[in-house]
């Protein structure tokens, strides 16, 4: 089976939108109007016989059908669907059968008669063409609904295409041979090079019926955009036949021209729609590529910010140590060394060294990902574990803990230590903001699953809350409201959550305090 | 009648300068205190901008060593606030997060220096010394202007009027005609004005008038 997202990107598997359906209806109605005008008010008009019309029309049709066939073969090579192979062969068939048709058309190459065959050949080739293509459509409709094992081509793509083209060519040659060599034996459907005979409808009606059968089959099994547009084509095929005979069964009459125009339309429809779809899909692809690049750049910016934060945090104690050492040297280098002050300087240096080590340790805990793999884990367990970890601190500050766990929570895939780091930072922040003020101190940690199947965790406190002017800044690296804060806790949290395809945001808690939510889209059902 | 006794203002050269340090990092703060003490500079340490703004600043040459990132009011925000309040104290920004845009921003806002941590002690001391010199000059100028204003206020309105006219370059006779006094009276007023303004020459009096903007 082809990958689902690949299927999504091809016409034959794209389901038509409402707009597509409306456009299809508009095309049908537009052409019907044309038919009524040609068969009604304009039926008395006798246009000039333009001999160049037939070769021009045939050439355009041939090019259209060939390109459509090529595009469909290209789709087949991606999807390997037998149905697509059949409909592509159908377009090869319509393209090829145009060749004997124009050769047999009276007055195109030789005045008064066809280059090959007799008077009847042209019309019989026309019938073969219409009945033949409709048969291909029926084949397409039947095969595409078949069971999955039979739907796909297992052999090589090249061989399949070659075989289809070869078989179709043989079919066209056979039809042409019958129409040309046995012309005399075929029922007479034309009177002369211009007028159709009264028996024409007796052959035309069954041919139109084949198209109608194809239309019905497509209707029953309609699913994709290609189905929709083939239905339009079959509809046009079906109205072409009666329009050729009524009201004037004469070539180069106004309705004969109308039939040719309808034929041209039906031959171009699938091509136009495919080209339109290819452009749309290309645009979508470009958008996706651009989006991915922006995402990568955003991640790089975050990386830079984190690197800058680390540099800042390490430089801070280093700076203190260097300055203390400088000051100590100055006290010692005095004419009368001040040993007491020098000692104070040395103590400063020692304290600075310890603080630097603590900073480095903190950074390592946050970024220690090497050799660790993501595994599926239970967020509820993680919350319980983290609460146990912080129980001492929470109790010391008389903070009441409420844990509202959704026990139906599915497992999520993630880095246990990193996610715990997020919980620790959020709970520590909550705790510190509650210590800062008097009043009830309640830390509420909840897990839940939303309607989209995303797993979420919220950490709510009754602390100082977030000022409206800070809402946008709290996740920025280096921003802090604490006197001894690094200003990197929340920015690290956000990086971790985003690395888990999730989101981290803050909201005010009622009546006071703040709630931090994070959600992960990556979950696996337990 | 209250006798106006001008309080002789102390020349700033004799006053001990102060360096104010604001940094939330205790290591950096304390080490800067040590460094300034080691060269005999008086330093006052603050952990936040708020703590500093609650301190009343004495009129002594001083400068501010200010960390850019501070809890609450940031270094830049404090600078803006000081500018708004018309407190003209030289500021040396320090940061462990320095980049070019940040330093450009600081210098444009009127900082005297921008130093990234960790720094060489001599760089910091040079910057502080330059800032204090600058502040001393500013303070002296301010004080001189203040003294002049006080002296000028001690003149009678007639003396002030005569002094202003003298400064425009008019002769005694012309002044006399303009204010409707005798030339001799004008001379007396001028003499009093020069004495009260402690001007040793007519040229000095004219210069004083210029400095006072009259």
From TrEMBL, chain B:
GO MF terms held by the record: DNA binding
Naturally occurring in which organism (per UniProt): Rhizobium meliloti (Ensifer meliloti)
HTH luxR-type domain location: 148-213
Keywords attached to this entry: DNA-binding, Phosphoprotein, Transcription, Transcription regulation
4-aspartylphosphate: modified positions: 67
Domain Response regulatory: 18-132
Example GO BP: regulation of DNA-templated transcription
Database matches in Gene3D superfamilies: 3.40.50.2300, Winged helix-like DNA-binding domain superfamily/Winged helix DNA-binding domain
Lineage, uppermost ranks: Bacteria, Pseudomonadati, Pseudomonadota, Alphaproteobacteria, Hyphomicrobiales
Name of this protein: Response regulator
């Amino acid at each position: 089976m082809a990958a689902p997202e690949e299927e999504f990107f091809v016409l034959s598997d794209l389901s038509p939108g409402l707009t597509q359906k409306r456009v299809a209806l508009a095309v049908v109605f537009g052409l019907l109007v044309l038919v009524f005008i040609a068969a009604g008010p304009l039926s008395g008009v006798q246009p000039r016989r333009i001999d160049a019309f037939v070769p021009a029309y045939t050439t355009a049709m041939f090019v259209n059908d060939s390109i459509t066939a090529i595009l469909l073969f290209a789709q087949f090579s991606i999807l390997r669907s037998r149905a697509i192979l059949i409909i592509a062969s159908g377009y090869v068939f319509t393209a090829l059968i145009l060749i004997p048709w124009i050769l047999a058309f009276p007055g195109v190459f030789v005045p008064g008669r066809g280059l090959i065959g007799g008077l009847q050949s042209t019309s019989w080739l026309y019938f073969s063409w219409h009945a033949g293509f409709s048969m291909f459509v029926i084949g397409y409709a039947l095969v595409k609904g078949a069971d999955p094992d039979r739907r796909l081509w297992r052999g090589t793509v090249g061989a399949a295409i070659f075989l289809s083209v070869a078989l179709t060519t043989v079919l066209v040659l056979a039809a042409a041979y019958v129409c040309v060599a046995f012309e005399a034996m075929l029922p007479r459907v034309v009177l002369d090079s211009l007028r159709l005979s009264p028996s024409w409808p007796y052959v035309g009606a069954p041919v139109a019926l084949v198209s109608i059968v194809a239309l019905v089959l497509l209707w029953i099994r309609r699913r994709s955009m290609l189905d929709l547009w083939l239905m339009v084509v079959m509809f046009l095929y079906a109205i072409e036949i009666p329009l050729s005979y009524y009201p004037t069964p004469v070539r180069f009459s106004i309705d004969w021209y109308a039939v040719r125009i309808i034929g041209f339309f039906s031959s171009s429809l699938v091509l136009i729609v495919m080209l339109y779809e290819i452009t749309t899909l290309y645009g979508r692809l470009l958008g996706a590529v651009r989006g991915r690049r922006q995402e990568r750049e955003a991640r790089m910016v975050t990386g830079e910010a984190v690197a800058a934060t680390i540099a800042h945090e390490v430089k801070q104690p280093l700076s203190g140590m260097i300055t203390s050492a400088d000051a100590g040297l100055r006290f010692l280098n005095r004419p009368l060394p001040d040993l007491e002050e020098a000692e104070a300087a040395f103590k400063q240096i020692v304290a600075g060294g310890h603080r630097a080590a603590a900073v480095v340790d903190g950074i390592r805990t946050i970024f220690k990902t090497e050799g660790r793999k993501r595994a599926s884990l239970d967020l509820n367990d993680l919350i319980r574990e983290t609460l146990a970890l912080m129980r001492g601190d929470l109790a010391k500050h008389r903070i009441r803990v409420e844990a509202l766990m959704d026990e139906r929570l599915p497992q999520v895939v993630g880095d246990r230590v990193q996610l715990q780091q997020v919980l620790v930072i959020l709970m520590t922040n909550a705790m510190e903001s509650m210590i800062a003020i008097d009043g009830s101190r309640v830390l509420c940690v909840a897990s839940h699953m939303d309607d989209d199947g995303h797993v979420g965790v919220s950490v709510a406190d009754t602390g100082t809350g977030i000022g409206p002017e800070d809402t946008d800044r709290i996740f920025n690296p280096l921003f802090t409201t604490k006197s001894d804060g690094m200003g990197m806790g929340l920015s690290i949290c956000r990086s971790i959550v985003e690395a888990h395809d999730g989101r981290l945001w803050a909201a005010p808690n009622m009546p006071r305090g703040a709630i931090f939510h994070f959600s992960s889209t990556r979950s696996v059902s337990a | 009648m209250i006798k106006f006794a001008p309080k002789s203002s102390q020349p700033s050269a004799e006053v001990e300068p102060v360096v104010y340090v604001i940094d939330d990092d205790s290591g950096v703060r304390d080490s800067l205190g040590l460094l300034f003490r080691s060269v005999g500079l008086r330093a006052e340490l603050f952990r936040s901008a708020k703590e500093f703004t609650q301190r009343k600043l004495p009129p002594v040459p001083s400068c501010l060593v200010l960390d850019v990132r501070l809890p609450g009011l940031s270094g830049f925000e404090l600078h803006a606030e000081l500018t708004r309040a018309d407190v003209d104290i030289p500021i040396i920004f320090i940061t462990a997060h320095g980049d070019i845009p940040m330093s450009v921003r600081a210098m444009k806002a009127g900082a005297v220096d921008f130093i990234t941590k960790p720094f060489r002690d001599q760089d910091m001391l040079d910057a502080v010394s330059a800032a204090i010199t600058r502040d001393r000059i500013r303070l002296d100028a301010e004080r001189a202007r203040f003294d002049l204003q006080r002296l000028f206020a001690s003149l009678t309105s007639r003396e002030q009027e005569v002094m202003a006219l003298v400064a425009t370059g008019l002769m005694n006779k012309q002044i006399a005609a303009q204010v409707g006094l005798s030339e001799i009276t004008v001379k007396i007023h001028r003499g009093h004005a020069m004495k009260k303004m402690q001007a040793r020459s007519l040229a000095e009096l004219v210069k004083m008038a210029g400095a006072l903007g009259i």
